[in-house]
Amino acid sequence: MITKFTLFEQNIDLKEYMNFINDVGMFITLNTSHLNQYALDKDAITEIQQQFRKPVINGLTYVQLINDSLVKNPKAIPHILNWIKQLFEYVEPRFQKYLNEDGKKKFLGRLQTLKNSYIKLIN
After folding, report:
1. Over its length of 123 residues, how does the chain's per-residue pLDDT go in tens digits?
2. Closest Cα to residue 45, out of 101, 4, 98?
3. Which is it for the CA torsion 64, 66, 68, 70, positive or negative?
């Protein structure tokens, strides 16, 4: 069983990586299921939520990926982390634009926590 993997010439604890992967999964499923309550533009928010359900890698959605052994494949891990980085880049400006102030406080704070975890994981 793999307990560490090499990313950018560093060994990374697989448990820390899996915790992060699960946190991102919670964010894009449960945490954002109530985005419409805070929407300034409900159509834009619905589009964001649809993006969360699109395939990430090998035709698997993020939720399917978490439950698949591919998520622990050392060759797939950099691609998954890159997708998460792109997710952050996609979501943050849209949350800024399409959420009311309460939504921004709630979701941008959580997003920043995930971004900090991402930076810690890859550094």
Report:
1. 344 545 554 566 788 999 999 999 999 998 888 999 999 999 999 999 999 999 998 899 998 988 888 888 888 888 999 999 999 999 999 999 999 999 999 999 999 999 999 999 888
2. 98
3. positive
User: CB within 8 A of 49, min separation 6: which ones?
Assistant: 32, 33, 35
**Domain spans of the chain, in order of start:** 4-122
Whether the CB-CB separation of 13 and 72 falls below 8 Å is answered with no
Helix (H, G, I), strand (E, B) or coil at 54: coil
Tokens of 36: 């419409």
The closest of 102, 91, 104, 96 to 48, measured between CA atoms, is: 91
CA dihedral 46→47→53→56, nearest 10 degrees, is -160
d(CA 88, CA 56): 14
